[in-house]
Amino acid sequence: MSMYETMSFHLETERLILRPWVESDAAELRALHSQRGNGTPTVEHTRTLIAKQLTVTATTGIALLPIQRRDEGDFIGYCGLIIGRSTVEEPEIAYELFQRAHGRGYATEAASAVLDAAIATGRKRLWSTVGTWNTPSFRVLEKLGFERDHVSTDDSGEVVWLTRSLP
Question: Under a CB-based contact definition with an 8 Å cutoff, are residues 65 and 84 in contact?
Fold first, then answer.
């Protein structure tokens, strides 16, 4: 039994809805991953990713959630808590949005809701890891009160580790 409350898997903000994954999200998630420039994953691969995410959520009590715009109803990305390079006790906040949704404050709005959900679980600290090239993500995390902790290197280059203490 975890010493933390389960994260809320349905979050709403003024403009966004974050909710659990469903199989029909596979096409949109596939399109989002293809904008990374590393090719387009297969539909089957994307469905497998969603199934794995749902299993991890059931096991850890934390979730990476699809983001929909409230008025338009369209999928614009995802945001949530993951183990990633960290731990279930001090998870990472992660987000990725379609390029068409960049520059409108959606990442900050979604991440702020996830931050509140993390606080409600009783956790004391969150991490985030960001490639040194990703200036927009640094701006989002700065707005949320994250501070640089250290830099490491992996297969994709230098990674900045940021952290934020939770009340």
Answer: no
